Amino acid sequence: MKPRVMSLVLFTCMVGLLIAPYSVDLKTSLISLLAVAIGSGAAGALNMWYESDVDALMSRTCLRPIPTGKVKRNQALYFGIILSIISVAMLYYSANTISAILLASTIGFYFFIYTIWLKRKTPQNIVIGGAAGALPPVIGWTIATGTITIEPIIQLRYQCYQLLLEQKLQKRIYWFTHLLCFQL
Predict the structure, then answer these.
(1) DSSP 3-state assignment of 111?
(2) Nearest CA to 105 among 148, 163, 149?
(3) DSSP codes of every residue in 31-98
(4) How many CB atoms neighbour CB 84 within 10 A?
(5) What is the pLDDT of residues 147-158, one digit of tens each?
(6) Residue of 16, 49, 125, 141 with fewest CB within 10 Å of its CB?
(7) Helical H segments across 95-149, by residue range
(8) What is the CATH architecture of 3-183?
(9) How far apart are CA 36 and CA 156, in angstroms?
(10) What's the predicted TM-score (pTM) here?
(11) CA distance 65 to 93
(12) pLDDT above 80 (res 160)
């Protein structure tokens, strides 16, 4: 599991929960946030299972549990699948169907679209895959309201737009530094 990613997911989900026009009791909030945290961990475990060959080669990821041999690949796969099921079921029972569907969609999008399909094929993976990271505030909103309204959709579009701008800025910085180095 990826603790920094999980903390960001939890924070943004909590923001969605807090800005919603309805309040949720503490017990429901805590169980729902725990379900989202478990779902985030599940997506991370599935990602590390799939990426274990590359993780072993990169200095940033070589100390993860699979490359170091602390966890076997199959264990990580089963762990990720079981956590996915538990997290979606927890959210379904603690909050509502829409939130559970959104959590399942987020896990699926992160694993199938970002990890398997995009990550090794295109530098645009961060922009497109960032949609999975933009969904937790929507999940927080739906935990409180039980519906998807225009407000969380605007927030989702804004976050995706910010990711796109960040990607364009990174490209401009990249080309600027290359031009600068070429002229020196």
Answers:
(1) helix
(2) 148
(3) HHHHHHHHHHHHHHHHHHHHTHHHHTT-TTTTTSHHHHTSS-HHHHHHHHHHHHHHHHHHHHHHT-HH
(4) 22
(5) 988 887 777 677
(6) 125
(7) 97-108, 125-134, 136-145
(8) Orthogonal Bundle (1.10)
(9) 17
(10) 0.83
(11) 31
(12) no
